[in-house]
Specification:
single chain, Rossmann fold, globular, 8-stranded mixed sheet, about 40% helix, alpha/beta
Length: about 240
């Protein structure tokens, strides 16, 4: 059997890079999507030096032409995609700073990457995922996208607000449920992942989780068995409230 093919966006560093590494260690051919060619090529080379079959794919989730070119390149070289991990994301706000609302500019910039870019990539690569015998789509969300927990004064995130980021991740969760419903009669499984609070450029050094653990939820959902869940929101294998 040929190796599964996994495409990870925002994969030149952080959780995306570690996700690629762990999937590669499981025998996947990993495609590292990144907008910076030098960093993307360097990341792929690092994984190849570890014995992983890794390839850089030029992919800017905010550029429709880049997305379409990436989809055509992957189709030409690999023919299909077994797992699409929508990992690329941004945050322009200070976590933990309550605010009544974000600026319109901040909200637009955040949604452009975290939601609209994610949807554009999914739409472009879905035909290739449909060619897989058991396609998996993983949308990187956050516990900060949970309406239930944000509304609960007893929850750990009740006072931990970053409005534009939180709104974008709540929207990703809703998109996940809709796409899973659309694909419910196919072998494709679509889930949202909360990686945890991880030591990354976004998470900061005070985060309690290391990268190796932060990638585990994405890897778990990208390798679900045929009887695994779809249309869910998970941290590791634990379901989270919407």
């Amino acid at each position: 059997m040929s190796a599964p093919i996994s495409l990870i966006t925002g994969a030149n560093k952080g959780i995306g890079f570690e996700t690629a590494r762990q999937l590669g260690q499981l025998g996947h051919t990993v495609l590292l999507g990144a907008r910076d060619a030098a960093r993307g090529e360097a990341a792929a080379a690092t994984l190849r030096n570890e014995g992983i079959n890794a390839h850089f794919i030029a992919l800017d989730v905010n550029d429709e032409a880049s997305i379409q070119a990436a989809a055509h390149a992957v189709e030409s070289q690999f023919g299909h995609v077994d797992a699409l991990i929508n990992n690329a994301g941004v945050n322009y706000e200070a976590f933990g700073t309550p605010a009544a609302s974000p600026s319109r500019q901040t909200l637009q910039k955040t949604l452009d990457t975290n939601l609209f870019g994610l949807i554009a990539v999914t739409e472009a690569f879905l035909p290739l995922v449909k060619k897989s015998a058991a396609g998996r789509i993983v949308n990187l969300s956050s516990v900060l996208g949970s309406l239930t927990l944000h509304a609960d004064p007893k929850s750990d995130i009740y006072n931990f607000k970053a409005p534009a980021y939180d709104i974008s991740k709540a929207a990703v969760n809703m998109y996940t449920t809709h796409l899973a419903w659309e694909l419910r009669k196919t072998p494709i499984k679509v889930n949202a992942a909360h990686p945890g609070w991880v030591k990354t450029d976004m998470g900061g050094e005070e985060a309690p989780m290391e990268l190796v653990d932060g990638a585990k939820t994405s890897v778990h959902l990208a390798t679900l068995p045929a009887d695994g869940p779809t249309g869910g929101f998970f941290h590791l294998s634990d379901p989270l409230p919407w």
